[in-house]
Amino acid sequence: MPTKILEVKNLSVTIQSEKILENISFDINQGEIVSIIGPNGAGKTTLLKAILGIIPYQGEINWLKKQKVSYIPQKLETNTGFPISIKEVLDYYAKAPDREEVLDWLDLSESENKSIRELSGGQFQRFLIAFALLQHPDLLLFDEPTSGLDIFGAESIYIKLKNLSRDFGRTLILVSHDLSVILKISDRVICLNQTICCVGPTNELSDETIKKLYHQEVNLYGHQIH
Amino acid sequence: MFFYNFLLAGLAGIFISALGVFVVQRRQALIGDSYSHIALPGIAIALLLHFDPLIGALIFLSLSAFLINLIQFKTKIYTETIVGLFFALSLASGILLIPGQDLESILIGNISAVSFFDLGLGLVLVALIIFLLTRYFKDLVFTTFSETLAQAEGINLVKTNLIFLILISLSVTLGVKVAGTLLVASLLIIPAATAQLISQSLKALLTNSIVCGLSTTILGLTLAFIFKVPPGPVIVVFEAIAFLIAFGLKRNRI
């Protein structure tokens, strides 16, 4: 029996009199990977921010187990031109004894003294993951892990994420547009478009549901990774 | 007497250019520019009521910091728009209220008139800046890197933004005497922009900005004394030269 860690009940978010989310309810179990998919403007990022408690909401967000939560924002929510080195960011905000190990795991050891504005898209994304992991979270909220990455960059990130859940028992909530890849690693999928269109195990997700969610032809298995 | 001048100018050069790093990295360069003019009505009122103009400037700038922060988070209007509004109003009322012969020295600086009181006030401002900057340094850096991430880690954005505006208020007051309101903004922007061209870490960014701010201020002031011209414009010319040199260094490296 999986352990439930988070319970969201009738969650609604209104920003400047515009309803962004309406009556959202779902649970999250320990150690699972849950992906939130949906078209632009569906409220995916808003949902993550409500779970983080950094925006006001109506309804209930109940933590059934004390969790250290880390958030990995979209790249465009960070100032990527800031000449600050990886080492400096980690020294200030993520001092942890396992730093070497985490950087090594994310292939960042050699970039530690680099300024973040010199990093490639993939390196920057891995740097954000390193930052989050060094907070030693139980639950990771990850907003568009692979936006701006090519298919190989994206796949390497997803393999890392899968390992996090499988080998380290971390719970992951991902927001993504990257359907073909995300379906491979998620245990469950939440389809969101202001309200929840569907929620269930990944293998039960059908082309029909996706079509309904995006209001257009989307082929679930459009491209394969070789 | 000269010693007071150079000490005040040096302090202004160091602290304004250090804060400038945050102004530039938070993409609020034009805010720094407009912000300095908010000092004008304060200076005008001080001149009319015969108390020290710097005190008037400080009061007006600090009040504006609170007001701008309040309007910004209550209405979601961009800071630059609000500062723009304050800027126009301040410049207009300053020009209407300040007598012509004083206006010029307020706009472009007049360090020859540094009194013991000015220096004392300068030291108090520096102490406040050091206190706030060391206490909120991490929060300022984090919110500069990513507001969302900082918020997720529990940093209060409204409070940090207010601290940031207060720090600008204090540093603008410190610089008004040296460079004048029109040019204090250059001290806030050009050294930090120069440093950004050649720095790959925050430590380097702050060091380069301070070195640039301090050296151009002292050089500018020395020449202003020798040639009997207002210090503000000379300092800006030196800053621009420093920027061009940094630009040349960067180009050669690439």
How would you characterize this protein structure?
- The complex is a heterodimer of chains A (226) and B (254).
- By secondary structure, chain A is of the alpha/beta class.
- Chain A is built from seven helices and nine strands; from the N terminus they run E-E-E-H-E-E-H-H-H-E-H-E-H-E-E-H.
- In chain A, strands 5-6-7-3-8-9 form a six-stranded mixed sheet, sandwiched between helices.
- Chain A is globular and about 45 Å long.
- Chain B has 254 residues and is mainly α.
- Chain B is 86% helix and 0% strand.
- Chain B has twelve helices and no strands.
- In chain B, helix 1 packs across helix 10 (181-198), helix 2 runs parallel beside helix 5 and helix 4 (53-75) packs antiparallel against helix 9.
- Chain B is globular and about 50 Å long.
- The A-B interface holds A 16, 49, 52, 54, 69-71, 73, 77-79, 82-85, 87-89, 92-93, 113-115, 118, 131, 135 and B 25-27, 76, 138, 141-142, 144-149, 151-153, 196, 199-205.
What are its keywords?
heterodimer, A: 226 residues, alpha/beta, three-stranded antiparallel beta sheet, 7 helices, 31% helix, globular, B: 254 residues, mainly alpha, 12 helices
